[in-house]
Amino acid sequence: QVQLVESGGGVVQPGRSLRLSCTASGFSISPYALHWVRQAPGKGLEWVAIISYDGSQKYYADSVKGRFTISRDNSQNTLNLQMNSLRAEDTAVYHCVRERRVVAGDAFDIWGQGTMVTVSS
Amino acid sequence: QSVLTQPPSVSGAPGQRVTISCTGSSSNIGAGYGVHWYQQLPGTAPKLLIYGNSNRPSGVPDRFSGSKSGTSASLAISGLQAEDEADYYCQSYDSSLIASVFGTGTKVTVL
């Protein structure tokens, strides 16, 4: 069964750090770019970051640039998100997402169920 | 702040046809980047519904269709069913932001 499972969420104080992980099963992540997408409570989807298939290219949303770091370990079939200097506005469900190259672009074809991050004092 | 604009809500009776618009700009949809659509049922993760403007993944009913023209795209749901009640999001790529971008989201209600 092809799936992505996130872990590492929880409650953290503003200014502190948290590390999220995502483990893939049923497929190898090696050929795929991977993303983190978040959704604040009652809000829409917000793209957070992307890492290329080999980890050589990384891009971030302006809202997290300089604070979050995306990484991957293809040998362990895992994706990570290191989140530093957390703010209340980072409170959201964080989804790990697989990108698939399709006709006319790249679509997000596999989504994890997400892990909740709450930033609160 | 989303760069793709969708109506907050649309509704229709069972069996009817509803459409959801997704309006972008010359740096995303208008630049030729593909538009993809996702369905998010309550309490679940989003699911890919339409890719590459108008293509359905295996298992998606042909009641769902997508189109694109200029700087906008649309998702149509024909023969509306109760199980279609969900939030729907469009997504593309923006070359100015160097980022994937999502629409603001549309809640579909079946009356």
How does this model look, in words?
The complex is a heterodimer of chains A (121) and B (111). By secondary structure, chain A is mainly beta. Chain A has strands spanning 3-7, 10-12, 18-25, 34-39, 45-51, 58-60, 68-73, 78-83, 92-102, 105-111, 115-119. In chain A, the strands form two sheets. In chain A, strands 2, 4, 5, 6, 9, 10 and 11 form a seven-stranded mixed beta sheet that branches. In chain A, β5 and β6 form a beta hairpin. Chain A starts with a strand and ends with a strand. Chain B is 0% helix and 44% strand. In chain B, β7 (86-94) and β8 form a beta hairpin. In chain B, strands 1, 3, 4, 7, 8 and 9 form a six-stranded mixed beta sheet that branches. Chain B is mainly β and 111 residues long. Chain B has strands spanning 9-12, 18-23, 36-40, 47-50, 64-69, 72-77, 86-94, 99-102, 106-110. Chains A and B meet through β5 and β10 of A and β3, β7 and β8 of B.
Poorly predicted tracts of residues of chain A: none
Number of E-state strands of chain A: 11
The mean pLDDT of chain B is 96
* pLDDT averaged over residues of chain A: 97
Alpha-carbon Rg of chain A, integer: 14 Å
Keywords:
heterodimer, A: 121 residues, mainly beta, 7-stranded mixed β-sheet, 4-stranded antiparallel β-sheet, 11 strands, 55% strand, globular, B: 111 residues, 6-stranded mixed β-sheet, 3-stranded antiparallel β-sheet
Compact summary:
The complex is a heterodimer of chains A (121) and B (111). Chain A is mainly β and 121 residues long. In chain A, 0% of the residues lie in helices and 55% in strands.
Question: Could you give the topology of this structure?
Answer:
The complex is a heterodimer of chains A (121) and B (111).
Chain A: E1 3-7, E2 10-12, E3 18-25, E4 34-39, E5 45-51, E6 58-60, E7 68-73, E8 78-83, E9 92-102, E10 105-111, E11 115-119
Parallel strand pairs in A: 2-11
Antiparallel strand pairs in A: 1-3, 3-8, 4-5, 4-9, 5-6, 7-8, 9-10, 9-11
Chain B: E1 9-12, E2 18-23, E3 36-40, E4 47-50, E5 64-69, E6 72-77, E7 86-94, E8 99-102, E9 106-110
Parallel strand pairs in B: 1-9
Antiparallel strand pairs in B: 2-6, 3-4, 3-7, 5-6, 7-8, 7-9
